[in-house]
Amino acid sequence: FDLSHVYGNRLNDTEKVREHRGGRIKSSKTATKPPEELPPKAEVPGCNVRPEPPRFKCFDSPDGIRASQHPALQALHVAFHRRHNMHATALSQVNPQWGDEKLFQEARRLSIAEMSTIVFGEYLPTIFGRKLLNHFRLGLAPMGKFTKYDEHLNPSTIQEFITASGRFGHSNINEQFRVLMN
What we know:
Blueprint: H1 4-7, H2 66-69, H3 71-94, H4 100-128, H5 130-135, H6 159-171
């Protein structure tokens, strides 16, 4: 739950979307680039622009494809993209001495913490139930309690789990979405 659809999978993935001012991520009023700035479709894998109206623009994101693959993923991308910029703006007002890099990293940290709280505090308990989450100690720590980083813990997962959980996630995606146009 690292918000890789907003920040990318590798250290330098965010460079193409960073403003490099105030810790913010580049954006526009529509959260997409103007049509003349869009890369050709071949350069954006997963960019599926409809041939007839309503036409949607492809989003530019550090991971390259997920933000344009599905309306629900696009909504998550936009929400956390904007949330990052809200954090960066607020942090810059409270800490005017902080530079762009510090503001970006702190806004990123807060956004990832919010996403983790949503996943571990709301989504997973709904899917698995509190009893199972408590058994595997996957729930949120009580207020004021913190977990400790264990450098000896192996963070890898087995292929079977990744495959099964990936299929589970895809089964949660609706087949159709109603699009409301202004």
